[in-house]
Write a structure and sequence with these properties.
single chain; 358 residues; alpha/beta; UDP-N-acetylmuramoyl-L-alanine:D-glutamate ligase; 4-stranded mixed sheet
Length: 358
C-alpha cells in the first residue's frame, strides 16, 4: 500500500481498467474477411494499467483504483500486475466479475486494424468506492482518469479535483493533484462531455475530441476548439493525437502542430497499440517535474510544445517494443529518445536530468 504522507515521494493514482491483451499480428498487410498468416500473443493490458506501468518505469510510485474479481484467473492477473510494481490494494474485489479481455488485430507494421474490448468489470465501479479512497486521491501528485470507468465516476473525480485558475498555465506550488484525462475511444469519450473543461491535461485523438465538442467527426480541428470554447470545455492543456501527423496542442486558443521526427530519427516501429498510453504517462511525468521538481531550480521552458515532443518521443519508444509497454522504458531511455527525435530539447533534458530523482 502506498503511503499518503505529503513528505513521501510523489505518487500517482490511475482510476481505470486492467485487462488481458490478446494481440494478433499479421505478417503482412491485413486482408479483410480472410484468414491472415501471423502470430498471436497474450500480455497484460488496459489503458489505465498501461499508463500505470509506464509511470512506474519512469520512477513514479503508482496505485490503481479499479474493480477486481475473485476467480483463479483474476488471482493470476492481479499477481502479474503487482509484480510490475503497480499497487492494487485500494481496489475493491467483487464476486462474479468477468475477467476483462482486449482482443485486437495488428498489421505487419504494428498499426491497429480493429479491436473488441470486454470491460464489463470496470463498469461496476461506483462513486462510493471512490469516496472511500479520498485520502489516497487527495495527496496524489496526479490522478489519471481512464475513459473506461463509468460516467458518474468520471464526473465525481472532475468535480472534486477540477482545474483551478486560468487555462494554459500551472501553479507549480499548488497542492491539488493534477487531473488528467485519457478518453480511450470515441465511444468512451462521450462520458467526458459535461466535465472535460475541468481537467488540467487531456489527450484525446481528433475523433474523440469531436465527440466531446458535440460536432461532426469530419469537422475541422479549429471548429472543434471553437465549439469547446463556447461551452467552456477546454482543459487547461489539450494535446490531440494525430497519428502520423504528430500532435496538435492548443496555446492561447491557437492550434499548433508538433510533427513526428523524420523516420531516420525514430526508433523502428513494431507495435503501436500502447503508444498513446506511453504518451499520456510522459505528459504526467513531465508535468509533475514542472510542478514539484523544477521549482527547486528556478524557471525552465516546459511549455506545452516541449511537453508534446516528450510525449511523442515516449509514444515512438513504446512502439519499438512488441509489448504494449516497453519494458526498457525509464527516465534515461525516454530522455535519450527525446533528444534523438527532437535535438532542440537537449537543454531542457539536461535540466531535467540534473534535477535528480523525485
Amino acid at each position: 500500500m502506498l503511503q499518503t504522507d505529503k513528505k513521501t515521494k510523489p505518487y500517482c493514482v490511475v482510476v481505470g481498467g486492467i485487462n488481458i491483451d490478446v494481440q494478433a499480428f499479421c505478417h503482412s498487410e491485413y486482408i479483410e474477411r480472410d484468414s491472415n498468416p501471423g502470430y498471436i500473443k497474450r500480455s497484460l493490458g488496459g489503458v489505465g494499467r498501461n499508463i500505470a506501468e509506464n509511470l512506474v518505469h519512469l520512477g513514479l510510485p503508482t496505485e490503481m483504483i479499479t474493480v477486481l474479481g475473485d476467480s483463479s484467473g483474476w488471482e493470476r492477473l492481479i499477481s502479474h500486475i503487482e509484480h510490475a510494481g503497480i499497487g492494487l490494494s485500494h481496489s475493491p474485489r467483487l464476486s462474479g466479475v468477468p475477467l476483462p479481455t482486449y482482443l485486437c488485430i495488428l498489421e505487419g507494421d504494428g498499426g491497429l486494424v480493429g479491436a473488441v474490448a470486454d470491460m464489463r468489470a470496470i463498469e461496476q465501479m461506483q462513486v462510493d468506492q471512490l469516496e472511500k479512497q479520498k485520502p489516497l486521491l487527495d495527496e496524489a501528485a496526479a490522478i489519471i482518469v481512464d475513459g473506461n470507468i463509468p460516467q458518474t465516476c468520471i464526473e465525481w473525480l472532475a468535480e472534486r479535483y477540477r482545474a483551478k485558475g486560468d487555462r494554459g498555465s500551472f501553479n507549480i506550488n499548488a497542492a491539488k493533484p493534477l487531473l488528467v484525462a485519457d478518453t480511450v475511444s470515441s465511444a468512451k469519450a462521450k462520458k467526458f462531455k459535461a466535465c472535460f473543461g475541468k481537467f488540467d491535461i487531456a489527450k484525446p485523438n481528433i475523433a474523440e475530441a469531436a465527440v466531446i465538442a458535440g460536432v461532426d467527426k469530419e469537422t475541422s480541428l479549429q471548429n472543434i476548439i471553437s465549439a469547446m470554447l463556447k461551452t467552456s470545455s477546454l482543459p487547461r492543456e489539450l494535446y490531440i493525437s494525430m497519428g502520423e501527423n504528430g500532435m496538435e496542442i492548443i496555446e492561447a486558443n491557437s492550434v499548433i502542430n508538433i510533427s513526428l521526427p523524420s523516420p531516420q530519427r525514430r526508433p523502428h516501429s513494431v507495435n503501436r497499440s500502447g503508444a498513446g498510453d506511453a504518451a499520456c504517462a510522459a505528459l504526467v511525468w513531465i508535468s509533475i517535474y514542472e510542478r514539484l521538481i523544477v521549482r527547486k531550480m528556478g524557471s525552465i521552458d516546459l511549455c506545452p510544445q516541449s511537453k508534446a515532443k516528450m510525449a511523442l518521443a515516449a509514444a515512438l519508444y513504446a512502439a519499438s517494443s512488441k509489448y504494449p509497454v516497453n519494458r526498457k522504458l525509464n527516465k534515461n531511455s525516454l530522455c535519450e529518445t527525446a533528444i534523438n527525435c527532437y535535438p532542440e530539447l537537449s537543454e531542457i533534458i539536461d535540466d531535467i536530468q540534473s534535477g535528480g530523482e523525485m
